[in-house]
Amino acid sequence: MVGGAVATATVRAVKSKRLIPTRAALVLTQSAVQRVRHLLQDKPNAIGLRVGVRQRGCNGLSYTLDYATEKKKFDEEVEQDGVRVIIDSKAQLTLLGTEMDYVEDMLASEFVFNNPNIKGTCGCGESFSM
After folding, report:
1. Tell me, what's the pLDDT at 123?
2. pLDDT tens digits for range 10-64
3. pTM of the model
4. How many Cβ atoms from other residues are within 10 Å of residue 57's Cβ?
5. Confidence at residue 68, expressed as pLDDT on a 0 to 100 scale
6. In the chain, at which end, N or C, are there fewer CB atoms within 10 A of the end residue's CB?
7. Nearest to 88 by CA among 77, 75, 97
8. Which tens digits make up the pLDDT trace of 74-106?
9. Long-range contacts of the stretch 102-108 (C-beta < 8 A, 24+)
10. What gap in Å lies between CA 126 and CA 61, rounded to an integer?
11. Strands 98-104 and 109-115
12. How far does CA 65 lie from the centroid of its chain?
């Protein structure tokens, strides 16, 4: 992994699919829940997976994934099926209504964020604009 990141992530702009409204800022698919659980099983100091954003790529923003050892003051916590995802305070508005999935195919295995708030993505799917 590049720069010590836990996993890679791809972004998809969702236009036709309407996500079910929920109180959680982020909804995980069963595949994502299983992968987060697998990533955390060998990390006893981690309380969950931290999702953040940073300026990077041709469209401006990309998601970051790392192990969370603490929940900071303004972070949002999503707990689903026994796994915890901590959303960095700077990423909260970019993730509202997003579905986090984990996809494996012949060429790659990665988390995919199906985000209805995205206005555009780059060709490779790693960066996005709001």
Report:
1. 57
2. 666 655 555 555 556 889 999 999 999 999 999 989 999 999 888 765 657 778 8
3. 0.73
4. 17
5. 93
6. N
7. 75
8. 999 999 999 999 999 888 888 888 899 999 988
9. 102/29, 102/31, 102/32, 102/34, 102/35, 102/36, 103/10, 103/31, 108/8
10. 8
11. antiparallel
12. 7
Contact 86, 68 (CB under 8 A): yes
Separation of first and last alpha carbons in the chain: 26
102: CB partners within 8 A, 6+ apart: 29, 31, 32, 34, 35, 36, 109, 110, 111, 112
3: DSSP letter: G
- How far apart are alpha carbons 125 and 78 in whole angstroms? 24
Closest to 74 measured CA to CA, from 60, 54, 59, 91: 91
